[in-house]
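Sequence in, structure out.
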Amino acid sequence: MKVLDRTIIQMTIPTPFAVGDVHVYLLKGDTLSLIDAGVKTKEGWVALKAQLSELGYAPDDIEQIILTHHHPDHIGLIEGFPRAETIAAHQNVDLWLTRNEAFFDRYEQFFRQLFIASGVPEKLMPSSVELRGTLQFAGEGKLTDTLDEGDALPGHDDWRVFETKGHAQSHLSFLRENDGAFIGGDHMLHHISPNPLLEPPTGNEIVRPKPMLQYRSNLIKCQSLNIQTVYPGHGEIFTNVGDLIPVRLQKQEQRANKVYDFLTAKTQTPFEICKQLFPKQYENQLSLTMSETIGQLDYLENQGLIAKTLKDGIYVCDTVK
């Protein structure tokens, strides 16, 4: 636990995931708010209650919950705060909190169709259990308030909402403009680059989102926000935003150049490229590695450097001659 200033307190919760501990933030103002809610495990709940107790609070002192995005390590414990009548987040978070079955059916169908078209063999196709596996660590509920770019955080008029899609199609970050404090969820992390993850289109959208392009665009947007201190979802608090963002962009471009070199050698399917990018990980982490691979292909295609062609139901990628 870290008391960061008179209004922000960082609390740290263990997770069963490879990313390690997750941070949530107690935000004081007209309302006592919890930004993100950790992961739904016994150890997580014990850790959160203990840190609240050190501060002189109990779970029923929390008046509202604000979520940066829908991933299980950020929404897990939302059911534990009986006085929190407000749950605020991007509208897409509600699909996960309410366990919208029609959405999850589309979610599974989306990945199956995309992976088939990407050349993934049937034996590696993720099952329903795999695609929904982490839901056991997610809380259930329903949003009471939706947040959009430009909104003030409810109960905290000095904080402004910014859309930072890429890592998730529900991702928001929060900026206190008078001092550049930035609660950034998983959008910007100091020690690692977050994965821009594939997700199906929502609502009336037909075309799938392109998370790598969103991630880059929102990183570039953050360069103009005068961010001074980032309070992240994982890892250390940091201040060198002006140095970090160009590094993140450059590393992504380097990986894209690697993919381009693969395609210079020969035309390939997205799955064939994935196997070369992640020879040790692709079988056990197919969704993550395919998200990264397709993200790099989206970037190269957007740059006009490659094109993909559908042949016998499978995409084949090639450089633009």
